[in-house]
Amino acid sequence: MTFGVFSSVTLLFDFWDVHSPAGMVLSVLLVLLLALFYEVLKVWRVWLSGSQLAVRAPACTPPPSVHSESASMLEGSPETSLAPVELHTSGPNSWLLHVIQTALHVLQVVLGYMLMLCVMSYNTWIFLGVVLGSVLGYFLSFPLLDQMQSFRLV
Prior knowledge:
- The protein is mostly helical.
- It has one domain.
- It is 63% helix and 5% strand.
- The chain has 4 helices and 4 strands; from the N terminus they run ββαβαβαα.
- It has helices spanning 21-50, 68-76, 92-119, 124-153; strands spanning 9-10, 17-18, 55-56, 85-86.
- The chain has a two-stranded antiparallel sheet with strand order 1-2.
- β1 (9-10) and β2 (17-18) form a beta hairpin.
- The longest helix has 30 residues, at 21-50.
- The chain is elongated, with a radius of gyration of 19 Å.
- The chain starts with 8 loop residues before the first strand and ends with a helix.
- 16% of the residues are buried.
- Residues 53-59, 68-74 and 76-81 have low confidence and may be disordered.
- GO terms for molecular function: copper ion transmembrane transporter activity.
- Belongs to the copper transporter (Ctr) (TC 1.A.56) family. SLC31A subfamily.
């Protein structure tokens, strides 16, 4: 299989059968929005975890051979905020939070696999829609995470 630039493709389900340029534009926009929502969902899960007095474990510790500049760059990167979270709350609120986190995780996994299957259609336009949606989602949502974390600390 190779990537192709064509306006005829079937995405995810039999009823999502695209045969026209207008349908392709609409499909690319929909896939772009799904990818954007995927990135926002990741940030939402991190924020939800941190809103319950979470203690973050270090995301990654660089090996001793890595220079201190690289280590400081890793500490400030947005991906470190996706570190495993340990909650120190008890009672019904922690159970409800766990149920919500589980539901959001399932939604994130399903959405991720759906986006992967869209890319596996080998349509260049759909692929670009997924990539642009991820870029836009990351660009818009991760600065919000920093703002939410600084708001919580005040």
